[in-house]
Structures are given as C-alpha cells and as structure tokens.
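Per your request, structure below.
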C-alpha cells in the first residue's frame, strides 16, 4: 500500500471510528445499567439494613462505654475521696470546737472543769443527719468521751482488736503520734443494731495537743457504698435514648435493679418467662470471662408477640453489675422499609435522568466528533509539514550542542552511529556499524574499563549507562572529552547519545589548577606565619643558651668555674636545645606530605597541637584562650583541619591587635546528633555587615596589601567543604563573660562523623 493510501485510510478512521465507538458505547452502557439495576437495588437494600443495624450497635456501644461506664467509674472513684473529705471535715469541726473552748478557759478554769465543759458541749453536737458519732481517747487507750455509749468512758481499750486481729486503738494512737498527727485507718467494728458481726469501717484520727487526746470518727463502707449505688442507679434511671430505649442494670444474681419497662422492674431475669432465651444468654455472659458483648435475644411485647432485641452489655466488676441498653429490631425494620422505598424511587428517577442525559450527550458527541474529525483532517497535512520542520530544527540543535545519537544491538554488539558522532570522532569512511571493539581503538586505554563496566551494568540492571571518556581523533590526532549516556528501550537494544564536552572539561581543569595554586599560596602564607612563630618561640631558649655558654667561658677564664656550676649550665644548655628540637618537630609534623590522609584523631589533642604552633605570638600579644572542649574522636584529615583552625585564629589575633582592652578568644567544641561543631569567637567587635557575604571570597581582605593576601579564609572554606566533608560559616554575637559584655565574630565549623 502506497504512503498516500495509508494516509487516506488513517483519515477515514479518524472520521468514522469515533462515531461508531460513541454509538456502541451508549448501547453497551444502557444494557449494562438495565442488567445490573435489579442486582444493585437488592444489594443496596441488604447493605442499608446491615449499615443501619451496625450504626445502632455503634451508638448503643458508645453510649454505654463512653457515658454510662465512665460515669460509674467516676462516681466510684469520687465517692471514696468524698467520704475521706467528709470524715476529715467532721473531725476538724470537733477539734475546732474543743480548741476554742480550751483557749477561752485555759486561764480561768482547771483542767477538770474544761474537760467537763467540752463533754457537755459535744453531747449536743451531731455529725450529720444520719446520727454519726465521734469518740475521744487519750494516748494510753482510755476512752474519754463517747456520745452514744457513755458507759465506755473511763475504760481502757488499748488492747482492743477487730475480727482480723488488728489493734484498733493502738493504730489510732500511732496515727496521733505520727509527724502529721492525723490520718485515716481501716478496721472492722460492730454496727449498733448488729452486735454479732463486724463490718469494715473507714475512720479518721486527729490529735488534740493540749491533753494528748485523739479525736476520731468513721463510717461503715457497705453503708456508704449503698448510698453511692443508689445515687448511680437514680442517675441511670433518667437516661433516655432514641426510640424510647433506656439503660437497664442487673446484678450477677439476675436481679433487675433498674428498668424503665415496669413489667421488668424488681424481678429476677433468671426466673422470668417474659425474657425467653435472654436469661440463658445473660447467665452465660455473667459466668464467662468476657467483659462486654452484644446479645441478641427474643422478648415478648405487651400483646404477647415475640420480637428480637439486640443489647450491648458490659460488666461493672466493682459492683457485680451488668449495665446495658439495646434496640428493637422491629423498629429498625420499619425504618429500613421506608428507606428502601426511597431508594427504589431514587433509582428510577436517576435512571430516567441518565437515559435522557445519555441520549442528549450522545447526539452532542456525534456532532462534535464529526466536526473534530474534519478539523483533524485539515490539520493533518500541516502537522506533517511542521514535523519535517521540527526535525530540521532538532538536527540543527544537535549540531550546535555537538550531540549525536547511537544504538547498540545487545546480542550482536553492533552499533549504529549518527553522522554527528562520526563527525565528532573525526572518522573517515565510516560505515556507521562499528561496535564497542572499534570504539576501543579510539578510546584512551585508561578509560576503557569504566566504559565497558558501565555498558555491562546497564545490560544487567536495566539502569542508565553513563560514562565520560577521552577519544583520540584519527583525522587530526586531537584529544576530545565525550559524555556518553544510554538506556535499554527493549530487551535487545540500547539507545543513547554522546556529547562533545571538551570545552567544559578544559574549564574544569583550569579551575582545578587555579585551586591548587591558591592552596599552595595558602600553605606558603601559613608557612610564613609558622616561621614567625618559630622566631618568637626560639628567642627565649637561644638567649638562655647564649647566657649559659658566655657564663661558662667567663668563669673558666677567671678560674672560678666549679664542677657543679659547669654541670648546671650544661644541663640548661641541653634543656634549651631539646626545647628547640621539639619545636622543630612540632612544625615539621604540620608540613609532612600527607595531604588528605584520613585518620582517627582526638579533637582535643588537635586543638592543643594548633595552639602550640601559635603559642608564642599569642602570649607575646597577651591574648587569652578560653576552651570548652568535649573529649571526642573523629575520622578526618587532621593537618588540613589544623590549617583551617590556624587561619581563623590568626585572623582573630590580627583583629584583636587593634583593640586596647582585654583580648579573648573562645574555643568551644561539642557533638550534636551526627555532627561535630567547632566554634571560635573573639571580642574584636565583629565583622562589618557589608563584608560578611564576601569574607570567604578569594583575594578579599580587610588588611593592608602588605599584611593580607585574601586567600586564608577562602582556602579554609574550600578545605572544609571539599576535603573535610563539612561546612563553615560566620556570624556576629553578643555575649557575657565574667560579668562583662562583649561583641565579636564567631566562626562555626560543622563536620560530619564518618
């Protein structure tokens, strides 16, 4: 088929295929919707029922767990605190009355008269509406006052015990004698109307200092618990939910404690026939280890009809109660039927609307498709011309970028090279089917292994091939740099490009050479500083050697040189010479040819080495070094770090020489997360704001040309970022030291732990 016929066929397909597709799609959609409508409605009805039941379950569970149970737990906890508060308040009230009487009459009346007055007053005092009572004992166990049993007064109860053998009065005495002189105690005691059994009681004791008495009162815990239970049940009985549902409570014996339905009030669920199978399910639940669950069971309505009820129940183990609420499934079913009617009506309405909209949309799409296909036809020819133009533009762009494309057959290892690649490689009479073996004859031997490894890795892992290599052009013998990229486009072909990057590489090499020159300049500048430091450090020992040797000669000429003096002076000369030798070793270690050697070293030791190299000048110029350094080991290039530290410290020294006040340099080193921070700050008034952005630039300096080169901080940043895998930055900071305010520059170096 000719190319023109293919184009005409394509135009016919563009015109008519969308029309046919739209009509078929419309018919299929209508058929599909009609087919699944009934099934969807059936599923929707079932889902609605299940969702409605689940929603009601969630509601009743939430109401019980988050409202009822939490209320009961709060009341139980709060009731204990309220009881303690009540007892303490009652005793404090009696104590206050007795204290007032004592203070008022202690000067006028005898002790016996005051005691009689206290008893008379307290007989008329009632603790609460339930006729609770209090008692008074001395610290020997003798009862002083008992409002309900006056016959106990004057009797010693020191050895009185409850049913558990607890010494009640002795415990009370110990509380009164304690540091706080008051406290709570638990014990068992008879009730006034039941002398045959002792009940647990909570009491509060407080010492009455003037007569070494203690006052006490208490309440039976079971009586108090009954009050709390009654309060809880009264609160729960007024709770009402949707559909007139309510909270019900029964104990572990089946007794219904509260129930809004009067037919179930005050009955035992285990003995009732109205609850049908519920009694079995509740018995099983109470005897099981389950804490909470949903129970579905049958009930009888007022007209003796059976209905299903779902209840959510939970155990309140502290009270041996079961608390719950539920809903009637008959109520739910009636609501579901109403909702199903709405759904059926909604489905029919939506179906009618969909049919109308679909027909209208189909007509619109048919019209649009007709015009669009004609429009595409009119643009098709123009697109072909535009495509040819873009191909010409693409070829021109490749020529400007010196970019060529290639293909490699993975099985045969034959390659296709574009004309641009042949031109870049400078090859004559190339058949454009050369593979890697031919490329190897053009490539530098040192680069071949990298190229071969990258190609093989691309084939094995399906990842991008990326390699930079050098080519020696056969046509003129020139060396060019090539960046080669490629990706697998199918299982048997790698498609890629190469680009001539010779100019870029030459600029990179020039930049590297420039950095090497700057680094050497920085090293020489540092060496100049070192020589100056050596001169400072050698002045004193050389002077000592000169003085000692001259003294020996003079004393020898005068015949006054003793053996002891000779030995002493010779030792002085030797010690000074050893110091000079050690100084040379320190500086020699700094300039050893071990550039970029990574090793583990202690940062504190590195700081000491740096300061030792600068020690003479800093002391001579009265500069104080304040250190706060953590003991940390790090792997890095120690000599390069020393050079950076020396540059920063020398800059700080030069700025401090301009100051006529106390000169300080602070060195702080600490570890934070996975980084080491070195902070060096001075009090030389900081870096001018207009210079902060330029301070790490090459050849930028604030000193005279005769004193500064402007490469120290530039090389310091270069060393930290490129050799030490870190970062360096500067800021000005105000701070207080020894109650004095200072302001200066702070250089921070951040190094990553390797």
């Amino acid at each position: 088929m000719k190319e023109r016929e293919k184009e005409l066929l394509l135009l016919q397909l563009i015109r008519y295929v969308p029309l046919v597709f739209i009509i078929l799609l419309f018919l299929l959609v209508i058929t599909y919707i009609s087919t699944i409508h009934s099934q969807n409605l059936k599923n929707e009805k079932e889902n609605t029922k299940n969702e409605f039941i689940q929603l009601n379950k969630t509601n009743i569970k939430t109401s019980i767990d988050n409202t009822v149970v939490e209320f009961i737990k709060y009341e139980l906890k709060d009731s204990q605190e309220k009881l303690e508060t009540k007892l303490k308040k009652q005793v404090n009230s009696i104590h206050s009355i007795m204290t007032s009487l004592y203070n008022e009459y202690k000067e006028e009346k005898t002790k016996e008269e005051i005691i009689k007055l206290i008893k008379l007053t307290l007989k008329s005092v009632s603790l609460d509406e339930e006729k609770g009572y209090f008692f008074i004992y001395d610290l020997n166990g003798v009862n002083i006052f008992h409002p309900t049993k006056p016959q106990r007064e004057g009797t010693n109860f020191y050895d009185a015990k409850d049913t558990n053998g607890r010494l009640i009065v002795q415990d009370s005495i110990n509380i009164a004698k304690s540091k706080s002189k008051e406290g709570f105690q638990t014990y068992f005691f008879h009730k006034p109307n039941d002398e045959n059994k002792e009940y647990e009681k909570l009491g509060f004791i407080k010492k009455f200092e003037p007569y070494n008495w203690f006052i006490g009162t208490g309440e039976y815990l079971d009586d108090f618990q009954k009050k709390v239970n009654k309060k809880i049940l009264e609160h729960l009985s007024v709770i009402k939910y949707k559909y007139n549902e309510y909270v019900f409570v029964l104990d572990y014996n089946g007794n219904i404690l509260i129930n809004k339905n009067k037919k179930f009030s005050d009955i035992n669920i285990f003995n009732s026939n109205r609850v049908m199978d519920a009694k079995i399910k509740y018995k099983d639940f109470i005897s099981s280890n389950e804490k909470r669950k949903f129970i579905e069971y049958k009930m009888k309505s007022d007209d003796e009809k059976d209905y299903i009820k779902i209840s959510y129940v939970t155990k309140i183990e502290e009270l041996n109660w079961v608390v719950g609420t539920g809903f009637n499934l008959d109520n739910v079913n009636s609501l579901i039927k109403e909702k199903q009617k709405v759904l059926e009506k909604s489905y029919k309405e939506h179906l009618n609307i969909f049919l109308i909209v679909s027909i209208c949309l189909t007509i619109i799409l048919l019209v649009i498709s007709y015009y669009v296909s004609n429009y595409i036809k009119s643009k098709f020819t123009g697109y072909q011309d535009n495509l040819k133009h873009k191909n010409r533009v693409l070829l021109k762009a490749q020529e400007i970028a010196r970019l060529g494309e290639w293909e490699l057959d993975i099985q045969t290892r034959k390659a296709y090279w574009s004309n641009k690649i042949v031109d870049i490689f400078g090859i004559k009479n190339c058949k454009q089917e050369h593979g890697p073996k031919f490329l190897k004859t053009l490539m530098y031997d040192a680069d071949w292994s990298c190229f071969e490894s990258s190609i093989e890795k691309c084939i094995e892992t399906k990842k991008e091939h990326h390699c930079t290599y050098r080519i020696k052009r056969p046509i003129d013998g020139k060396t060019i740099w090539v960046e080669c990229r490629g990706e697998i486009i199918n299982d048997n072909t790698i498609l890629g490009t190469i680009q001539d990057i010779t100019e870029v590489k030459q600029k990179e090499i020039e930049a590297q050479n420039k950095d090497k020159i700057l680094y050497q300049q920085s090293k020489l500048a540092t060496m100049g500083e070192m020589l100056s430091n050596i001169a400072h450090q050698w002045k004193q020992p050389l002077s000592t050697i000169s003085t000692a040797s001259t003294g020996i000669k003079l004393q020898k000429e005068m015949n006054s040189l003793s053996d002891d003096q000779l030995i002493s002076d010779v030792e002085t000369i030797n010690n000074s010479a050893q110091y000079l030798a050690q100084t040379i070793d320190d500086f020699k270690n700094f300039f050893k040819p071990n550039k970029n050697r990574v090793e583990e070293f202690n940062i504190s030791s590195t700081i000491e080495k740096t300061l030792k190299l600068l020690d003479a000048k800093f002391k001579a110029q009265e500069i104080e070094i304040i250190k706060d350094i953590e003991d940390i080991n790090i792997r890095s290039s120690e000599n390069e770090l020393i050079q950076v530290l020396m540059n920063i410290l020398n800059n700080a020294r030069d700025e401090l020489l301009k100051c006529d006040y106390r000169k300080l340099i602070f060195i702080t080193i600490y570890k934070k997360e996975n980084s080491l921070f070195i902070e060096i700050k001075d009090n030389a008034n900081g870096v001018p704001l207009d210079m902060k952005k330029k301070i790490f630039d090459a050849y930028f300096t604030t000193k005279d040309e005769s004193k500064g080169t402007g490469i120290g901080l530039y090389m310091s940043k270069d060393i930290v970022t490129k050799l030490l895998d870190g970062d360096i930055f500067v800021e000005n900071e105000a701070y207080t030291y020894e109650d004095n305010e200072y302001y200066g520059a702070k250089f921070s170096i951040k190094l990553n732990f390797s």
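Residues 704-710 have pLDDT under 50 and may be disordered.

Regards,
D.
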